[in-house]
Design brief:
This protein is α+β, with helices and mostly antiparallel strands. The chain folds into two domains: 7-67, no CATH class; 74-225, Beta Barrel (Lipocalin). The protein has helices at residues 7-26, 43-60, 70-79, 199-207, 210-225; strands spanning 81-86, 92-100, 107-115, 120-132, 137-146, 154-163, 171-180, 188-196.
Length: 231
């Protein structure tokens, strides 16, 4: 199967990218510097625009992994795997996995948050995503829910920028919007740090042993209160 895009497909790709940019700029999310602004006056509109653009991009790039560029493959290799996150919630630590999507043209994000007793307190998954290769960023729309609280689901739009992707990225920063669907005025802008898990940390988080997970969570939260110095 040919991996080259036809002229018509290139046009669709350009339209998709423009739709994504227009959606984020129109709804106040993306500034001229490529970062999010503080204006969240219409999150739903931005999400719709993003999903439309992401679907267009996936339609154009819906080919096996071997059809992607070497640069994109290298980026995926540098960031895929297990990460722990801190900062989104003061009493929990996130555990997330980044994997290439089914068509291999973007990344899927799947995560859980663990409380200080080692129990799962929240989970979230990306519904659609798009890679901005030049900036080493992943834009994503997510859905999730706090467990055991009987609350409505949450959703939002976010970005993750990764550092030192020339080899294997070990850190990143996520800025995202969090809205509870039971309260349309509850949108909050948050940020959290991403750190690559060691093999042992990944095994402990995946293993489900609450004692081991609780120890990890407490250690990470304590270290965050006493940071070693500027990043």
């Amino acid at each position: 199967m040919s991996t080259q895009l036809s002229q018509a497909e290139r046009k669709v790709l350009i339209v998709g990218i423009l739709a994504l940019i227009v959606a984020m700029v129109t709804y106040g999310y993306l500034t001229s510097t490529g970062t999010f602004s503080n204006d969240v006056w219409n999150l739903s509109g931005g999400i719709v625009g993003f999903l439309i653009a992401a679907l267009i991009l996936n339609k154009v790039y819906g080919q096996p992994n071997e059809g992607i560029s070497p640069e994109l493959k290298a980026f995926f290799k540098s960031v895929e795997g297990y990460w722990w996150t801190i900062g989104g919630d003061p009493d929990s630590i996130g555990f997330a996995s980044l994997t290439p999507s089914g068509v291999g043209q973007t990344l899927s994000l799947k995560g859980r948050s663990f409380g200080m007793d080692g129990s799962v307190v929240a989970h979230w998954d990306s519904v659609a995503s798009c890679v901005y290769l030049e900036k080493k960023k992943l834009y994503y729309f997510w859905e999730g829910r706090w467990t055991g609280k009987g609350e409505s689901p949450n959703e939002g739009f976010g970005e993750i920028v990764f550092y030192n992707t020339e080899n294997q990225a070990n850190s990143g920063l996520s800025i995202y919007f969090d809205r509870n669907l039971g309260n349309v005025e509850s949108t909050i802008k948050k940020e959290c740090d991403y750190h690559r898990c060691t093999d042992k940390e990944a095994r402990d988080f995946e293993g489900g042993d609450k004692i081991k997970i609780a120890a990890l969570v407490k250690d990470k939260l304590m270290d965050n209160k006493n940071p070693p110095g500027p990043r």
